[in-house]
């Protein structure tokens, strides 16, 4: 699997959302828009049930680490979740598979990681960028770092164990650090 990157240009973040909507579905665009705001791994994002959403927070146990994640939902995400809830009041999952609805006797399931990965990869090809499901998490981390310059804060948001892992993960390279030393004269 090829490494995917953070989307550093905010206009491209918006374009990706638009392309996912017109090329695939509103639901795929919602995965991107909510995912980029929650910074969860794709398996955790897709497994969110409406019962995991408590008032203005999503509370779950991360499948990879077993760590508890309690994430405050911003107004944009709350509005998107409420839209989904109004449109699909009987759904169990935030991103419930529509295909599964065709099988009357099967229990509800979320969208598959494979479907999201494929849609993201094809939009990435169209834009000539390495776009994948981890791009949402990396993008959130990158933009928080650019806004705050606080790697510890980003590390905590991503629930990483080390600063070096987080810097590498969000795409801050030695070249970026060198440029900061050259450009910032005190």
TrEMBL record:
The keyword Electron transport does not apply. The keyword Glycoprotein does not apply. Residues 1-182 form the Tyr recombinase domain. InterPro entries: DNA_brk_join_enz, Integrase-like_cat_sf, Integrase_catalytic, Tyrosine_recombinase_XerCD. Keywords: DNA integration, DNA recombination. This is Tyrosine-type recombinase/integrase. It comes from Paraglaciecola algarum.
């Amino acid at each position: 699997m090829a490494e995917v990157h953070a989307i550093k240009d905010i206009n491209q973040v918006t374009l990706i959302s638009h392309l996912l909507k017109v090329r695939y579905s509103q639901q795929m665009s919602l995965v991107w828009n909510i995912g980029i705001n929650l910074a969860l791994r794709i398996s955790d994002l897709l497994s969110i049930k409406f019962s995991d959403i408590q008032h203005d927070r999503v509370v779950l146990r991360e499948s990879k680490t077993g760590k508890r994640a309690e994430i405050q939902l911003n107004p944009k995400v709350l509005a998107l979740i409420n839209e989904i809830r109004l449109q699909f009041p009987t759904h169990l999952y935030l991103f419930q598979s529509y295909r599964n609805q065709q099988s009357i006797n099967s229990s509800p399931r979320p969208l598959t990681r494979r479907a999201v990965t494929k849609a993201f990869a094809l939009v990435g090809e169209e834009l000539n960028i390495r776009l994948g499901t981890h791009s949402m998490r990396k993008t959130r981390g990158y933009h928080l770092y650019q806004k705050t310059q606080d790697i510890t804060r980003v590390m905590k948001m991503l629930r990483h164990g080390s600063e070096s892992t987080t810097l590498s993960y969000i795409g801050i390279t030695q070249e970026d650090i060198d440029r900061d030393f050259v450009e910032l004269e005190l």
